[in-house]
């Protein structure tokens, strides 16, 4: 039961017609009638959805750019993430290919950057001496240990 026609008109005039919230410039809103269930008119709803998709796409690629690749373990970790994302369909083959190429480059850089110098003679043990290339490759464990004794702390 209506209380009064005046109240009905007030309701229709204010709360019931949502307007498009898109900013045309810094001061003006679009103010076309918004589509049901959205805050935007038809054309701006499409524009917003396109923008959101583009942002999601960019975020998908950016996770990799922020992944640390300073050692072999982190390259390995990133590789696992690429495989997981590829299998779950969150990246496509083309993106995976680009990322794998970057990973390959990163791991080559790591290898050429070398490892060392050893700061503790324990690092020379259990074959550890074989891994060092800085300041030089060692002939054997004893060579490595004697380097640490002379140059280490
Ligand atoms: Zn609009």
Describe this structure in words.
The chain is an all-alpha fold and 153 residues long. The protein folds into three domains: 1-50, no CATH class; 67-113; 121-151, no CATH class. It contains five helices and no strands. Helix 3 packs antiparallel against helix 4. It is rod-shaped. The relative contact order is 0.06. Bound molecules: zinc ion. The site of zinc ion (ZN) has 7 residues, from loops.
Anisotropy-based shape: rod-shaped
Number of strands: 0
Give the structural class: mainly alpha
- Sketch the topology as an H/E string, one letter per element: HHHHH
How many domains? The number is 3
- Percent range for β-strand residues: under 5%
The end-to-end span amounts to 91 Å
Largest sheet: none
Number of helices: 5
Q: Which oligomerization state do the chains in this entry correspond to?
A: single chain
Describe the structure concisely for a colleague:
The chain is mostly helical and 153 residues long.
Based on the model shown, name its key terms.
153 residues; mainly alpha; 3 domains; 5 helices; 0% strand; rod-shaped; binds zinc ion
């Amino acid at each position: 039961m209506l209380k009064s026609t005046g109240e009905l008109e007030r309701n229709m005039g204010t709360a019931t017609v949502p307007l498009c919230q898109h900013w045309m410039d810094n001061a003006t809103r679009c103010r076309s009638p918004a589509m049901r269930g959205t805050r935007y008119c038809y054309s701006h709803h499409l524009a917003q959805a396109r923008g959101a998709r583009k942002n999601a796409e960019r975020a998908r690629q950016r996770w990799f750019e922020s992944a640390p690749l300073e050692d072999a373990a982190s390259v390995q970790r990133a590789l696992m993430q690429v495989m997981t994302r590829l299998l779950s369909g969150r990246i496509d083959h083309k993106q995976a290919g680009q990322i794998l190429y970057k990973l390959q480059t990163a791991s080559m850089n790591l290898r050429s950057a070398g490892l060392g110098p050893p700061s503790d003679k324990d690092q020379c043990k259990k074959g550890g001496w074989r891994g060092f290339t800085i300041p030089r490759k060692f002939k054997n464990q004893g060579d490595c240990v004697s380097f640490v004794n002379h140059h280490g702390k």
